[in-house]
Amino acid sequence: MYRWIPRILMVALVLSASSFALADEKLRGTVRIDGSSTVFPISEAVAEEFSKNRDYARVRVTVGVSGTGGGFKKFTAGEIDINNASRPIKQNEIDRAKKNNLRYLELPIANDGLSVVINQANTWVDYLTTDELKKIWEPGSSVKTWADVRDGWPDKALRLYGPGTDSGTFDYFTETINGKSQASRADFTKSEDDNMLVKGVSGDKYALGFFGFAYFVENQDILKAVPIKEGSKDPVLPTVETINQGTYSPLSRPVFIYVNVEAAMRPEAKAFIRFYLENAGPLSKEAGYIPLLDSMYRKNKERFESDLLKLAKN
């Protein structure tokens, strides 16, 4: 009887190894992601967790950062499978996708609060109104110093930092604050890399900048977030609670991934997107974002499966 034990174990090991081999054989290839620097930390975290699963060991997931607009240029040209986006797709991008016969799905994955930040040594800014933000950032702004923003503030040069013009964060901020997407003064330090903006503001007492909430959370030991006052409301700081409740207004927003339908029909891409939607909640929270409700993630996954099935038939 004892002679059968090693054989049984050997059979079990062979079957187990075979099942993993079959899984690997089915799932191999590359999933290409690009786009928003704001959404990058979530997609990067999902890609890392996905790669830890031995069933997906032969699937390579690349995550680039070219800004929401830069990502949509690649996405609508069919160069990438998924675009990270910190704003909804624009009409000209929709038109480009149609021209290239590219079908896509829009999937919200988390909430974010665009954060206005100052240096830790700044002691005079207690809050900023949306009107003051507009005064600072509008095209043709005459604001040169902090004293130009509010009486009693230092007569020191105000140095500004913000995302580049391909950024969805830039689009959202300019549309919300200045009334038109891309409408902004031009004399500020631009970067698609939010870490460069953090470095700029944290190294300059008289600096002001803006970017996604996660980057503030990650650097709150060297930066301060500015409470924002909208109309007659009290000033509100960006926090998990205020962003989730919508009281951090008007700078709260959802963030998205856009999925190329044809790409999503590939087994490795489909597996990755399913994994993304199943794990976006906890991983977005770890990355400093505010997860959607569990019911919304379930609906997203159901919609992904049903829409993919419908579109595959057409």
Largest sheet: number of strands, sense, barrel closure: 5 strands, mixed
How would you describe the shape? elongated
| SS field, number of helical segments | 12
CATH superfamily of the largest domain: Periplasmic binding protein-like II
Whole-number tally of structural domains: 2
Helix content: 40-55%
Could you report the average pLDDT, rounded to the nearest whole number? 90
- H/E element order: HEHEHEHEEEHEHEHEHEEHEHHH
What does this protein structure show overall?
This protein is α/β, with parallel strands linked by helices and 314 residues long. The chain folds into two domains: 14-111 and 255-313, Periplasmic binding protein-like II (D-Maltodextrin-Binding Protein, domain 2), CATH 3.40.190.10; 115-250, Periplasmic binding protein-like II (D-Maltodextrin-Binding Protein, domain 2). The chain contains twelve helices and twelve strands. The strands form three sheets. Strands 2-1-3-12-4 form a five-stranded mixed sheet. Helix 2 (40-52) links the parallel strand 1 (29-35) and strand 2 (59-63). The relative contact order is 0.18.
Essential attributes:
314 residues, alpha/beta, D-Maltodextrin-Binding Protein, domain 2, 2 domains, five-stranded mixed sheet, 12 helices, disordered N terminus
Quick structural overview:
By secondary structure, the chain is α/β, with parallel strands linked by helices. Helix content is 44%, strand content 19%. Helix 2 crosses helix 11 (267-286) and helix 11 runs antiparallel to helix 12 (294-313).
